[in-house]
Amino acid sequence: MAHTDKNTEPENTTHLVWREISRRSRDMEKFDVIVIGAGIMGSCTAYKVAKRGHTVLLLEQYDFLHHCGSSHGQSRTIRLTYPEECYVGMAVESSRLWDEAEEEVGYRVVTKTAQFDFGMADNRSLQLSIDNCLANSIPVRVVGKSDVGKEFSGVFTLPEGWIGGVTERGGVINPTKAVAMFQSLASRHGAVLKDRVKVTDITKVDGGVVRVSTVSGLTFHGKKCVVTAGAWTNKLMESITSSPCIFLPIEPLHTEVCYWKIKPPYTNLFTPESGFPTFASYGNPYIYGTPSIEYPGLVKISLNSGELCDPERRSWQVDMELLEKKVKPWIKTVFPNYIDIDAGPVITYTCMYSMTPDADYVIDYVGGDEFGEDLVVVGGFSGHGFKMGPLVGSIVAGMVLDDHTGNDVDLSHFRISRFMDDPRGNLKDYEDFVSLQKQ
Ligand SMILES: Cc1cc2nc3c(=O)[nH]c(=O)nc-3n(C[C@H](O)[C@H](O)[C@H](O)COP(=O)(O)OP(=O)(O)OC[C@H]3O[C@@H](n4cnc5c(N)ncnc54)[C@H](O)[C@@H]3O)c2cc1C
Questions:
Q1: According to the UniProt entry, where is the signal peptide (predicted)?
Q2: Residue 403 confidence (pLDDT)
């Protein structure tokens, strides 16, 4: 006779039979689409598939809204400024989809404000970002050392030789709230969501059905499957036993997010209500930040870099020496006297980027004899994917539902095959990506 634990009654045979039937029927669950990984990309994909009336299962290895991947925390920038034109149009369309989702759910996850990009006047990515605004009819004001004081209550100082571009189309997304929003919308449209379910294998069975196996022994079946596993993408792809392993050049980087104390008389100047922008400072160090929202009196100023890590063996440490060397001098230059840098970053947390060599995304069918177009891999968002979540969800829904509706994005930029043609991927003539920490 089996016992569930020492405090409960012994189970009778009927109970055991019921449990076995229930386990088998759960195992036999079949969906149009199975999505693996419930960060922003998986949650948006599940929402878009469910909204279009198809059955979808979203599986997550940890608790929903956990803090171990890339989609947690309180702020992500949404902006239209990109050195590459393809992302400009995508950001415009994704912004529209953020508005649409907020309207459907009935609350806000995005705080709109301006976006300020700045750096040395000859910085190639900055120049291209400004050019792309002009080419796409996005109003941009170009400012320099002498006139930056007219913007943002005069809190920014630009060194000699620096310029900046101001657009009105920036904003801050609350990521944890946003992921929760898409999960709840997905659920409203009938998606099945399961957390603490780690997928260990994906294979093809029974004349073409995709079978997803989990560490606890459960299996699920789907017509199509989508891997949105963030920094774990290669770990999951490598665990596929039936096909030759596909290795994608997606590297997990451990990074840190820092909040700094604004000196008390100036706290109001750093809020979105006062017009303080989301910003990016190009060059080395590449620094980015968001207005004071989540912690009153604090502003987020972080380094866009990271160090290689294993997502399951992270140090979780913050490199204070690096912040001392790279971020403090930058703050002294750009916000002189406004920030209490001696207090150090008063709040820090860690996160992971999934970097590709060209900092472009991977959105593609896995291909090959076994999976063909039945398995899609979506990853390598290289520190700039969050804003695109709703659009990526829509693109991927179109890919797995075989109609490619809902977007007209040219996906050739995001193909896996670009790394076969050249391991560096898409060629770029600028270098302002997330950098390796020691550089
Ligand atoms: C510090 C930082 C700042 C950023 N700033 C910005 C910004 O300002 N603007 C912007 O647009 N983007 C930004 N990004 C990038 C953006 O956050 C990421 O591109 C995005 O969150 C990636 O989402 P994802 O769903 O691909 O990955 P994740 O959020 O990591 O989701 C993957 C999920 O898959 C799950 N999973 C993995 N393996 C398995 C398995 N075997 N079984 C089940 N589940 C599994 C994981 O647990 C995880 O929950 C930033 C990223 C970081 C780290």
A1: none
A2: 82
Residue 21 has pLDDT above 70, yes or no: no
Whether residue 8 has pLDDT greater than 70 = no
What CA–CA distance (Å, rounded) separates 362 from 380?
6
- pLDDT over 60 at 430, yes or no: yes
What's the gap in Å between 70 CA and the centre of ligand 1? 3
Tokens of 278: 């989301």
- Which residue is closest in CA terms to ligand 1's atom 37? 229
Q: With a threshold of 0.70, does the pTM exceed it? A: yes
Q: What is the DSSP string of 354-368?
A: EE-TTS--EEEEEEH
- Averaging pLDDT over each range in 339-348, 399-408, 430-439, which range is the top one? 339-348
Query: What is the whole-number distance in angstroms between the Cα of residue 170 and the centre of ligand 1?
Result: 21
What is the band of 437 on the pLDDT scale with cuts at 50, 70, 90? low
244-263 pLDDT, tens digit each: 778 899 999 999 999 999 99
Instruction: Note the pLDDT tens digit of each residue in 232-246.
Output: 999 999 988 787 778
For residue 179, give every residue at least 6 positions away whose Cβ sits within 8 Å of its Cβ, in sequence order, or none: 38, 39, 40, 43, 64, 65, 71, 72
Sorted by where each starts, the structural domains of the chain and their CATH numbers stand as 13-69+177-248+359-436 (3.50.50.60), 76-173+251-355 (3.30.9.10)
**CA dist., res. 248 & res. 263, Å (int):** 45
CA 262–ligand 1 middle distance (angstroms): 29
What's the gap in Å between 40 CA and the centre of ligand 1?
7
> 176-201: b or e for each residue (b if 16 or more CB lie within 10 Å)?
bebbbbbbebbeebebbbbeebebee
**Side-chain half-sphere exposure of 221, counting CA atoms within 13 A:** 13
Residues with CB under 6 A from ligand 1: 36-42, 59-62, 69-71, 76-77, 198-199, 228-232, 236, 255, 257, 351-353, 379, 381, 383-387
Q: How far is CA 397 from the centre of its chain?
A: 17
- Residue 396, Cβ neighbours under 10 Å: how many? 28
**Of 367, 361, 394, 329, the residue nearest 82 (C-alpha):** 361
